[in-house]
Every structure is written in structure tokens, then in C-alpha cells.
Amino acid sequence: MTTNQPVEANQQTFSSEFFNALAAAMSEAGGSPWLIAAVPDAEAAQDGTEPVRFNVALDGGLKGEFLLEFERPEAAKIATTVLRQDSEEFGPEHSEALMGLVKAGAERFKAALAAEHGSVSVAASLDSRPIPSSAQVLQFTAGDDKNNRVSMRMHLSSELATALTVQTHNEKASDALDKAKKVSAGMTNANGVNLEMVMDVELNVTLRFGQRQLTLREVLDLTSGSVVELDRQVDEPVELLLDGVLIAKGEAVVVDGNYGLRVTEVSQPVSASVLARR
After folding, report:
1. Helix (H, G, I), strand (E, B) or coil at 123
2. Does residue 144 share a domain with residue 270?
3. What is the pTM of this model?
């Protein structure tokens, strides 16, 4: 596998799921089983011509796109498994057959994404754009029981790579917080889980200047210039919340052009007892 940047676990899982879905579509269409390996093929065929590329766009629970790329000789080799004819030239009929395979694989892939991301639409189309320099590259090799081997590359857009990276980090934070919850609740031996292991987990905190309940009509009537009156006086302290839990109060300040909070009162220490409420 070759990459321009480090590959996150979810990016690797994402690409593996797609190529396995594509291999299943190839197996069904060609009547011969294809298997995928997450390694580059040192013998990948190249003839100096422009590779065949497809754009696969995702929308819904997961947004972004990636370019799927084949060298032309290998694209022709895959297409012939559908057409069931021998040909080394990649022509219009091969393009149509390969497009059908990619779309069939995309449909299988959509079902695999649903369990983790909910409803996701997947659309595939031919694409002649050059590969962006910022794209992350994942390369896989497919082989069948007739000794056919082909290399396939996935180029993740920055939007999709970021979405998958954020998902990985969120999962790591969730796992760390789960450990803290168990320690707090006495579900595990405190000596078995060291809280120092989760001290670098990033948590989202929120400043609350006040709140107000609005009717649906009032929300729909909001326009540019509307004023919403809050339930707090100007001289009352601002609240610092951790996932909806009040942990401190203080005064709003400006630091280098950004809003900040000068803490004047700590409501309760941010400890495992607070984390356990997450």
C-alpha cells in the first residue's frame, strides 16, 4: 500500500470495504472468485497511457469523494471477465463493462456503510481529472483463481480523508472515556486502568452566556437583525459547560482577538465523576 500521508485506521477499513465489495461484484459478474489484498502489486501493468478513472461520490451520513484508478491494460483485463472475451485493448465496450462493475460494487459498499454511517448515497461516474496532489492514495491488488492479477488505486479527497480521520479520533476518545466511566462507577479495578492514559483526550467545552426557550413560531420568524433576549443579566457570570454539565463560572474576556473565560468559580472538579456522566 502506498500513501502520500499516514493512513488512519478508518481510512484503511473504508478502502478495504470498498475493494471487497468491488471484488464481490467482479466475482459475481465473471463467475470466478476474486480476492483482495491491501498490498501494491510490484508487477502492475503500465503501458504509458492515461489510466482509467472513476469518481465515486458519497453523500448523506458520510460526505466526500474518491477517485478509483486502473492502468488501462488492467482495466481491460477486469472488463473482459464481464464480457468473457479476450482483449488487450481497452475500448468503449470495456469502459461500459467496467462502469457496470464499479456501480455494482458501489451498491454493495453502500450497504456496508449503512451500519456505521446510516444512510449514504454512492454515485459512480467516469472521470478524466488529474489526481489532486493532496489526495491520499491507497493501493490494493486483486487476484482470481486463473492467475489474473490487477492493481487498483483509491485516491481519497481531503474532505473524505478528514471525515474518516475525525471518526477515528472520536472513537479513540469514546473508548478512553468509557474506561474513565468504569473506573468512576467501580466496574473495573482502578489499578487496572490508569487515568493518566486518557489525560490527553480532547473534550469539547462550551461557554453559555444565557438561554431562552422559543416556540416553533418564534424560531421560524427569526430573520437577520432579530434580537433574542436571554435569561441572564450582563453582570452575571458566564457558565463553562462540559457536555451540558456545569463545571465552572467566570468572566468573559478577550484574548488576542478571541473570546475567553477568566474562571472565578469551579462548580465541581473535572474528574472521573464528571466524565462518568458523559
Report:
1. strand
2. no
3. 0.57
